Amino acid sequence: MQQVNLGMIGGGTVGSGVFHALQLNGGLMASRIGVKVNVRKVAVKAFNEPRPYPISRSLMTTDWQSVVNDPQVDIVTELVGGTGIARTMVLTALKLGKPVVTANKALLSAHGEELFAAAKKYGTNLYYEASVCGGIPIIKSLREGFVGNRINALYGIVNGTCNYILTRMKLEGADFAAVLADAQKHGYAETPPDLDIDGHDAAHKIGILASLAHGFWVNPKKIHVEGIRQISALDIKFAGELGYTIKLLGIIKRIGGGCQVQVSVYPTLVPNAHVLASVNHVFNAVFVRGDIVGDTLFYGRGAGKDATASAVLSDLADAALDLKSGSKQRVPPFVPHECAGAVVPIENVVSQYFLRLNVVDRPGTLAKIAAIFGAAKIGISSVIQPEGHEGKSVPLIFMLHYATNGAVNGALKKIGRLPVVKGKPVMLRVENFE
Ligand code: NDP
Ligand code: HSE
Question: Does the active-site annotation cover 205?
Fold first, then answer.
């Protein structure tokens, strides 16, 4: 049987997961693809760091360059993370004509165009299935499975850490900080975890999916991003009373049937009857609407050592098959296509809204707020105010009809300045998947 030698950089959560999965299923994979992937070396930062799965000490080195430059190494994995040294590692391997497998969405978001260009220039390939949604094969699906479709909409729960936190806050009334600590213990969270909870990790992934789906490389600075830090138990409770569940949703939507696309990440009220509302804990899901296929759904673990290792193994199999067949860009990692699209600024995006204000319960309060919405031509679809708070401050919840984000933000600025409104209004968008 033909054999390819793997040089791994990174032996932490994902790296040790890959090492373990190859030990477990490397033989099976070889029997399926006719090539054996043999781990030749594993570069780490420090030998004695605790690892989720053990890695043979005889294979370990702290010198990543010796891995990349080893003439016996045919394929390199970058499972380190970040946009600094990882970029150098990937570029060094590509320049040597060696295919690279990475799980590093932050790196692809910041430097994807440069890295894909380098892969092409040096006649090799860059594989990145594990960079989005852990074990869900969404990259392959978008690139190959949906090659005959225009993607009209894609909605994704793409960050396991945030979904884990929001799920436990809703189901157990758990405290944000305690659940985040648990997510870190399970190896779900990024370093630092702000990347997860402020929505940036989800934005990296949604940018990659939007680029693949729409054929132009999405500038991460154009993606509107909001995280889950401001979500309180009160928002979860009132959303629940109205029949919704709050999820951090990545949204990619074609606007007006052309090349204008909404690309955004924000906490969203999802109707409880929609399948995405019941995607819980570390699970991710991606709902894709193609113009030919209609609606499709992908579901699986979005983070963690084993799920992510599964995606890396699938890339290793592709890389090994490409080496075997000698066609290194059989499936190019990213190809511009159709039209030079543009990301629509969030101010112009039309949504429905949930608003939570903290107001003084006195005559005229509601009228003043309603007048501001009326003047902005924003329709109110429902209002909740709990009884029994006369003269004191009370939560006041509005559901708003479709309006642009610009109009709602303008109205909220005025509402926030009313003396009867205490604290910063909370505005969340509602998605009905129409
Ligand atoms: P870890 O922090 O667990 O692992 C990072 C690894 O990189 C460690 O083994 C570390 O060595 C090694 N490393 C750091 N610097 C160097 C260096 N200079 N030379 C050699 N090795 C180095 O991170 P994860 O495994 O969680 O994440 C890796 C990548 O996978 C990231 O891009 C992440 O975003 C992505 N990812 C992570 C997922 C997850 O669930 N954790 C899921 C999907 C993608 P040492 O062990 O000695 O410290
Ligand atoms: N921190 C990421 C998450 C890891 O929680 O989804 C998987 O990409």
Answer: yes
Q: How many whole angstroms separate alpha carbon 356 and alpha carbon 358?
A: 7
The answer for residues whose C-beta is within 8 angstroms of residue 290's C-beta and 6 or more apart is 146, 149, 150, 151, 152, 296
More confident of the two residues 259 and 283:
283
What is the pLDDT at residue 387? Answer: 80
Torsion region of 131: left, alpha or beta (phi above 0 gives left; psi -120 to 50 gives alpha): alpha
pLDDT level of residue 258 (50, 70, 90 thresholds): confident
Residue 288 near residue 169 (C-beta atoms within 8 A)? no
63 and 191 in a single domain? The answer is: no
Task: Kindly state whether residues 285 and 375 are assigned to the same domain.
Answer: no
Closest ligand 1 atom number to CA of residue 43:
20
Alpha helices in 282-348, H assignment, sequence order? 305-325
Q: Active site residue: 205, 247, 253, 305, which one?
A: 205
The answer to whether residue 337 sits within a structural domain is no
Q: How many residues does the chain have?
A: 434
pLDDT digits (tens, 9 = 90+) for 388-429: 777 778 999 999 999 999 999 999 999 999 999 999 999 999
Range of the domain at 216: 140-301
For residues 134 and 127, is the Cβ–Cβ distance under 8 A?
no
